[in-house]
Amino acid sequence: MEHPLVAIEQPIQRARERAEREQTAVNAKAKAIGQFRSRVEAITPTSSSAGTAQAMAGATSLHTSASHGNHSRGCTAVREAFAETVAPQSTADIDKSEPLILTIREELGEAVALALSERTDTQFTPPIKRAVLTETQGLRTETRVLQRAIETERESLDHAQTEVALILSQIAEANNRSLLGCTFSELRSLHEELSELEDQCEAIAANRQSTIQTTTSHNAAAGLTHQAVLGYLYGSSDTQYPVLTTVCRVVSICRESKRAVRDHLCRRI
Question: Cβ-count burial of 97 within 10 angstroms (0-12 exposed, 13-18 middle, 19+ buried)?
């Protein structure tokens, strides 16, 4: 009745390591976004009449026109600030480099990317500055939500691993007992103990399911389902459900141990 019990916890342990690495990366990105925001706020927008007329052209978009030599120093400064703060964190997990303007588009949207592109003659007007800061705030909120969601995941994993480790130690203790040397009463008590451990496994699974069904938000915005977090963290892993996978294995071991005890009980009748 011996089992490689230590290996049973590996899915949870690997998930904990993955969540910890991602937490570190997301925290670094959040810090970079804050730095970028501060640098943009410090850049003075143009107040020229030409820039104002340009910014007012178009009610729903940031007006730009193709050019290669008249890009404002303000837009250049914003682009440089992004390259030195947010971009390295955004592309840290990408094997090959990508154009800066593509990263800006991914993080701040098409309109802002077009306004900041070197291929336009956009002046860094107050409306454009506000647009950059608005999109930056949106990115900051999304990142804070992800931070909280990963924190929730790590807490859930920590709790589950602690509970699973305790159950496995109790199963190992039960398995190390000589069933031949147990009395009928001792065998019945052992069977009841194993049934209680199985109930504890079900409680861990139920608690985990409750966590999976939650949604994380920040100031009632940017809701992120925990199911999406699991896909984000473990989409490329062997399993998207490390806790439930582990609990199922523990339950299987527990039931196998119970069958062995029942066999001995039946022989005593």
Answer: exposed
